[in-house]
Amino acid sequence: MLSAIAARKARLQHQSPPSLKPSSKRRHTPSAGPNSSTKKARKDTSKSHSEQKNVITTTVSKEEGNISLDYSDDMSITLDQDATLIPHVRPLEPTLRERTKAYSPSRPVADSSDDESDASEQPLTDLSQLFSYNRPLLTNEEPQILSTYRPTDGQNIFPLSLDEGSALGLSGSAIALVLSPSATVSFVGAYRLRVLRGSISLLGTIIQPSRVLHHVFAPRSSPIPVIEAFVAHGESSKSLYDIPAQITSTIDEGDAIIVLQELRTGIEALGRVMRTFEGVFHQGDPEGVRNIPLRGVRLVSQLVRGMCAFQVPPSWESAFSASSSLPAHEPTGLLKPHVLLVKGQKNSGKSTFARTLVNRLSSRYRRVAFLECDLGQSEFTPGGMVALSVIERPVFGPPFTHPTLPHQAHYIGAHNPRSSPSRYLRAIQALVDVYRLDLQFATSLVDIEDGEEDDRIADLIPLVINTMGWTKGLGTDLARRIEELVQPSYIFSFEASPSNNVVEPGGPLVHTLEPITLPQRFTPSDHRALSLLSYFHAVFSDPMHPTSLGQKAASRWNTDLPLCAQPPYEITLSLALDRIVLAGAGAEDVVRTELGRVLSGALVALVSAQLPPEEIEELYTPGSPPPDPASSNCIGLALVRGVSNNGSKLQLLTPVPPEMLVNARILVMGELQLPVWGWLDFRSAEGSAGSGVDVPFLRWGRSAGAGGEKRRVRRNIMRRAQM
Amino acid sequence: MQLPRRVPWATLVELDQLCQYIYAQDAHSTRNLAIERLSAWRFMTPLPHALESLLSILVAIRQDSASDFGLSSSLSLRQSYATALIRLVNGLVDPLQSGTYARSILSIAAQIGLPAWLVELRHAATHEDLPSLELLRDGAKESLTWLLHNYFLPTLNPALASPSRAPGRGPSTMVRPVEPLLRQYKSLLKTVARDASLRARHAGDISGVLREVERWLAEARVAAVQLHVGEFASGLSLYRGRQAGEVPVVTAAVDNGDGDEEVEGEPEPREAWALDRLCDALLVKGALVPISRKKRISAKESAQHPPSSLLAIWTPLLGSVTANHAHFPAVLTSHIIAHLLSGDDNPTDDEPNPDDNTTTAAAAAAEKASYDVCLATWAAWLIEWRRSADEPDTDVTARRQDAFFQLAQAIVVTAPKHETPPPRSSPSSQTGARALLTALCDSDRRLAGISDAILGARLDVSEEDDKPVWCETDLGVMEARVRAARSLSTAPRSDLHLAPDFSSDEPDFLSQNINLPDGWRLLSEQGGWRPCPIGVFTGSE
To answer: One Pfam match, by short name (chain B) (predicted)?
Structure first.
């Protein structure tokens, strides 16, 4: 134990920060990646796919000693405590070799079936699953340096007085950081960020000096954003504001200045709601690097176990630069909106790429439209719906940090379109029509003139489409149909297709991207559950602009109370609703008398639609189809937390702002369910709600009877003959 | 914290009702209700496999009784039956395919007690000619009965079916006995202990036996499914055991604190069952407790731990089992404590000890006391035994506490009351339990304090039998005891969360009465709504 610590310390001292400072010569172009040393390493590994696999396996087995060393060393930090809550985590995974060899009748092989196993889940033979979650993204032996910046009072860190802050248009306390060119700094936590001078890159996006306060969410559960400063020159060296005198006297010509402020939204407490993610916004820095004086933020100097840094692979970079030089006009002189489609297998970095693409575009366009076709892991909405969102500000953080009310959406009610492929396609068709009619030339959106000069393109809205990761079997067919529907002008593909880079006349331009494999510390269903819980705890009403148009993102999270203690709406069915629809396999068999039972604890979509008057009569008819996407809109999701005994009243919880509820006269229930975490009262240890009553529909402990568990599917079982 | 499972029924009463719909005497009229209920449940949440196959079977039966073959062909009916039965068997068997390679379905079915002919039926329906309607009907009937006995009854009576120890269980037919293995192990280790030079020669044999024990555990684990059924049948005797004041075994107690690989606080039931059987065998006289009374307690060393000769023999086995089943020490400790408290006769081998023929009652009591004290030393040793060199002290403390509370609770509860002193649990039969309690108190001073507060007070009360049953000061005594007990459980915990402190002073936007659409109303606690679990409706109709 002692020697392990000593060895680790020695390793830390071995790589002293200054020697890693990259030379600033190459760094004048803002398009360079965030970290030159890692970029090099990536180039080495990405020569060819098969070669990359070899590299990983060998270094991993070589690294095994290091890993176990780190493990015994870090025993006390918070990371390990939440590891106990995650059943999938085995901190010391056997190496690839051991795993294929060791067979013992008494030790069952790990089961590959997720609790929601879909056909689109990857089989166990996937190489990445054999690596434990805590391995860094790259196979570098030394911990990766995330911050070359070291705070020193009066030299590169300045707490701003309230007066200085208000001169910059800030309210509340703030601190300014001076970053020398190509310096990097990373934080874990949540903060607001403004660039005063110079430019920085953050999560693959370049931020120029502006008045915008960006909200950055950097939990440990997703790649850590690295802020990298670029040399301030030309336009970016000027500042929109007078920089306080105490700072101007100390900075050099090329230094960048950023201002950080606290960001208190209550999102940290989502870790209390779903304990799997407990403490992801906190980071105890083991080496004791000085922190910056900002609440809820922690400076991270280097990667520790369980974290990885955000990096943009080179092939992405070239795709981004191609997308940033899209011509705004057709050769004929007409305005030309662009439709950019991202496709690839699941787990290849599709969503990350799409999000970064939106961020990149939002520096050029005032609004960017985003069509989510991935029902499992949606970017802006909870899962289970196809949604068209309008984004005005870049989003910095994983999906659960920016739930947004969609412009229009259609509820499919499942994590994949397998049981309703044609409705799925109709929903996409309907949303593409909405985009073509209302959005692409920004016809239906009223500009709010807030007096700010904004030189971004306002009369053209590009569309980014994220497709689903189900690319086999029926999924292939659906993906092709989606492409035909949306007619993209650009396709960003994570798999080399036969028609790679071949430009048919009039056809889309195809960029092939290299997939990134992030360490899988959390399963897709963990992320789905967190997104859904984040949505239900989110507060969308903006007290300042209750009726503002455009992007309606969550401003804060009401995490004081668990869902079971939040006061619900009570609706009288006969007055408030026109219809209740059950959608999904087997829904036709639910009879009217069982409806109340089915709705109890159900997750439903609030849908508005124009129903022909003759159809309104019956509230529920078994087997009636969900409203047609062409004439309906899903406003949001609600949880039916209670049904009255005679079935005439429902109690609902929904984060949808009350003023939007008027048209929600149809409830659609699909296969989605509230995650078990959402049922529990996180204030009590047992999870039951205060009154001491047992929670209905939940059962503690294992099932005693045979066949008492949900059916589990294993696809990795072998026959003796296969040896 | 172990996460609960989502189940379709709000309470077990609903499941019970469903069971009656299906299995009642005049079930034909209510089975329709069962199908409707199951269809509704199926849409709410993924059903347990047993219920899902049940639904398919019921639907096929309904189709059968309604069809007159005038319009529908019997083929569709046979297909309905066949699909239902295939899916039932597959779903029951698949979870037991836990190895790398597939096992034969027949062998798994034998383990879970599924009739072999259902497996044959499945095979025929899948690969051969579709079986006849008559055979399929029989299969459906058989399946319904099987599900009643193997799913409904254990689920509706979880207490009876729980795999905790059942005294007086008959010999297990499905698992081969582990005792011969233990005897083989013991003689090997004895040889090695006597002559250390033989250690190298026997090293292979010893590890062979240890592997064999591990294999036995794996077998027992699989067989556990089958035995649940038998255990249910003998559930009455278990219930009687409970009534007599036996403390239910808490196997979950120990592992809550350590953040190692233990992801769940409780061993998986089948594993727990297997470990239980191993513990049963270890408690038999001649295993952990030697037959010779002299060998049980070492004279020289402090009497709180088993003699070193015993430790030398058994620690390799205990260590080996613990390495693969982290819960084993906890299970064994609970077993010992439960035995100490039960006042049961000593578990002996089937063949009676020749000495027993002539012993008088007093000698038997002395024998029992000696046996119990030796077991108590084992328990004390197990509690202090560190699984690894760097196991934190807090774990040991937690184990001590758990054991202490089990003991203290039982001793207080079963201490003689003036009305009816239960003869089986009189203090004299608790020599071992008290010895263990003393050992615990010796190693932890805080426990000693509580022991004085609780047990001492109990004795006081029992001495003042003639006084009124209740007086004012009793409350103070009780409070003091509660305080003493609480002082243990409130270990300081670091709270990592930033309290979102803005929401308390900001007005709640939602509670402002915004114009809600017709039929909508926002409830509030001022208006009489009370927080309650999701799924509960509070308020007026």
So the answer is: Las1
Check whether A46 has a pLDDT greater than 80: no
Q: CA A406, CA B522: separation in Å to the nearest integer?
A: 24
Residue A453 and residue A371 share a domain: yes
User: Does some domain include residue A415?
Assistant: yes
Identify the domain containing residue B298 by its residue range: 179-255+266-350+365-443
pLDDT of residue A96: 40
Q: What was the pLDDT predicted at A348? A: 84
What is the average pLDDT across A578-587?
89
Please, is A327 exposed, middle or buried when counting C-beta atoms within 10 Å of its C-beta (0-12, 13-18, 19+)? exposed
| Sign of the CA dihedral running A51, A53, A55, A57 | negative
Nearest to B1 among A108, A275, A698 (CB): A275
Residues A284 and A352 in one domain: no
**Is the ipTM above a cut-off of 0.85?**
no
DSSP B387-407: SSTT--HHHHHHHHHHHHHHH
Chain B residues near residue A543 by CB distance under 8 angstroms: 509
Q: Which of B43, B107, B152 to mutate to test the interface with A (most CBs of A within 10 A)?
A: B43
**So what's the pLDDT on residue A289?**
64
Positions in chain B whose pLDDT score sits under 50: 161-173, 226-264, 348-357, 416-427, 459-465, 467, 489-512
B186 and B49 share one domain: no
In a domain, B511, yes or no: no
Contact flag B97-A690 (C-beta cutoff 8 Å): no
* Mean pLDDT of the region A68-97: 37
* Residue A327 backbone phi and psi in degrees, to 5: -70, 135
Which residues in A lie closer than 8 A to residue B19 (C-beta atoms)?
Answer: none
Number of helices followed by number of strands (H, E) in chain A? 16, 27
Residues B99 and B221 in one domain: no
Q: What is the pLDDT of residue A498?
A: 53
Is residue A694 assigned to a domain? no
Q: Classify the C-alpha dihedral B165-B169-B174-B176 as positive or negative.
A: positive
pLDDT band at A331 (very low <50, low <70, confident <90, very high): low
Tell whether B124 and B184 lie within a shared domain: no
Residues of B in Cβ contact (< 8 Å) with A220: none
State the greatest distance between any 2 C-alpha atoms of chain B, in Å, as a whole number.
91
Residue A558 has pLDDT above 50, yes or no: yes
Q: Which amino acid is at A532?
A: L
pLDDT single digits (tens) A172-187: 888 988 888 888 998 8
The DSSP letter of residue B252 is S
pLDDT over 70, % of chain A: 68
Indicate the pairing of strand A339-343 with strand A463-466.
Answer: parallel
Q: How many CB pairs under 8 A join A and B?
A: 327
Q: pTM of the full predicted structure? A: 0.65
Q: Which of B100, B390, B534 sits opposite A1 (nearest CB)?
A: B390
Q: What is the pLDDT of residue B174?
A: 54
Contact B9 A81 (CB under 8 A): no
Q: Which residues 483-542 on chain A approach chain B with CB closer than 8 angstroms? A: 539, 541
DSSP of A423-449, one letter per residue?
A: HHHHHHHHHHHHIIIIITTT-SPPP--
The torsion angles phi and psi of A229, rounded to 5 degrees, stand at: -90, 145
Report the pLDDT value the prediction gives residue B289, as an integer from 0 to 100: 81
- Of B159, B345, B387, which Cα lies nearest the Cα of B257? B387
A330 and A433 co-located in one domain: yes
Closest Cα of chain A to B394: distance in Å? Answer: 14
Q: Is A145 helix (H, G, I), strand (E, B) or coil?
A: strand
Strand partners, A490: A340, A509
Residue A339 token pair: 């439709």
Greater confidence (A709 vs A86) lies with A709
pLDDT at A167 over 70: yes
Q: What is the domain extent for residue A85?
A: 2-130
Counted domains in chain B: 2
